[in-house]
Design a protein that fits this description.
The complex is a heterodimer of chains A (about 280) and B (about 425). With about 280 residues, chain A is α/β, with parallel strands linked by helices. Helices cover about 40% and strands about 15% of the residues of chain A. Chain A is globular, with a radius of gyration of 20 Å. In chain A, about 60% of the residues are buried. The chains are: A alpha/beta (about 280), B mainly beta (about 425).
Chain lengths: ~280, ~425
Amino acid sequence: MKPYQRLLLLLTLLLSSTSAFATKGVAFIHGTGQQTDALNDYWTSDFVNSVKQNNGKYIVINCDFDQYMWHTDAAQCLANQLTTFIRGEGIRKLTLVTHSNGANVVRWIFSNPTAHRKFPRIIKRTQKIIALAPSSAGTPLADAVMQGNSFETTLGWLLGYQSDAVKQQQVAEMAYYNSTLLHGTDGRPSLAKPLYSVVGSDVESAIWDSDSYCGGYTNQVALEFTQNWLDDCSDGFLECSSQAAAGSVWFIDKDKTAGSEPLSHQQSRRACFNLDTFIRDFI
Amino acid sequence: MNSQLKPLLIALSSLALLACNDESQVEPTAQTQAVTLNIQPIGTSLDSQTIDPIITSQDYVSFITPLSGQYQAPKIQTQQQQNSDQYWFTVTGKALNQGIQLPISQTNASVRISPKQNKQQSLTTTSIDSQQISFMPVNAPASNKTSQYMENILNADKLATAGIFAHSSGFTLRNSAPIGLYQMLVKQTLPENAQYIINVKEKNSPKQLSLTAPLATSQTDNLTLSLTLANQALRHSPTAMLFDNHGNSYPLSVTKQDQQWQLTLANGAELPTSQHLMALEINTNEIIAGQLIKRSIRTAIKRYSHSANIDQQLQVDWQQQLPQQLSFNLDIASASRFDVSAVITGADQQGQEVSIMRTQAAQWFETGKQTLTLPIDQALISQMQLTAPFRVRELTLTDQGQLARLSYQAYASELRLH
């Protein structure tokens, strides 16, 4: 037997005798905003600790998603952190858990694998994407705060302040990206790995209802007012049609949550109504 | 054992055994073939205008996405449609203190007042106390009260709890409030030059302004669009303004051509191009059944420079009767990072066309004649037991630096080794 043949056989035996290559990993990818401690400031430990149980290694991403999705501080920052995680922990089966605009940054990477040399490895190692309330088709609220290019002072905590991510999430901008640069929406190429979305369909905010308060809105009247800029089916920030625009719908909140409670846009990144356990089991 | 590793282990084992048993290696047959692509010559010449590229990575990167199933052509979207049941405009603090008129055509309309502050300005944001707003029909008796017409009156602090429209105030018209022309006046003294956006949202109004426009146009293309209000052509010329990504605004001239509206810069200059999308805002005032209907609509417009073409001559490398790689010749007019992607299909035993893979590659290119090579996964073709004719479909040239699709060919070529 020649040396290279022996090497090939040895490699085969090595691969079959080790389980290290099957290491699972979960990455938590935040939405719009510049994060430095997303574990505490965006997700909460309760949610992350619950989801990661029995699901191997985990990483909480901290990038600047106030930028456009393709920006170095967004997609490349995400790719750098995921690549370090994959290499450092030997991750072979990666699940990406995204919230809101985080799914758009992930879709940029998966739709444009040739845009950066780190993207292909991430795609290959990813098993699935769980997209919580993804803003796949944008939101009319981003349009509303951009009217007359006046976005500087009319934003709120859902969108942040003076950011390109707000411009990106206008309905017409997302329509262009979806038609030309992003995969996974109707009539476009499928994403290289499956994306399963969780859709928030309603908002309840009665202050006397502790269930409704999980994650928290307190003012029903204010919500009713902003809902005038959205379809009747929405999570208070995104219309259901936007959340369902890319990939396939895993479930619509009330179909699965405890007590058939809806998931507002804030609640879909919290341990509310068993959302955390559904994700844990699905991974 | 991880199920995903099984095929790899089987393949490696087979390879190892094969290598052990077969000492005499057979050289694969390799052949290079020139193919003419089914690309229509592009009428417009290349544009060498330099636009600062967004994606600047220099590396050659390729990627193959395995596909399966009978090939189905995608729907290529080149037009966008937007609808609007609202209007907005900017007013000064002085105008609000003097009173402005708002046409309302829908019961339960919502009115939002948001302070406007541009990046370049340093005006102090003054939120409006919604209790200081007077809102009544223009012909209402002076004895009437604002509370007869408004409900859900929100101050900035309350509205902020919904997570959007910070610093804004708002209210909804009562069900009983009649449609027609209203006068809105703010009693609170506002800075004279402070600017506010007034946004009237008439949710689900049948009087929708509909806009149909191209998703993207090259620098040499005209910008034309269709507009209807309540499914009827506009009688009056709308006004339009273009905003670039830096906040610069460009007033546009709007002229009717057949059933469409053509937009040009008011000073006759060429419309700008940009690596980013630009915002187009259009405002209309129409009379329907004697009632003034005011509408605004905002959409995104991509204006790109036609920076490269794919040449008609394709080089195909074959190995053991299967295509191994495709080398496309590119004519580059402006340096950038370019991506070429294509779907490769083959024939199954019933002769049906089956999707095999999407192959793509990208690289930074300087101007001139360049070549970009797309790999083909031969093992995937063998595994799927597909044969010629292989076809190159959905051939797409993208300028990643401009975030623009430069060309698309639904069917580009058949690959068959003669």
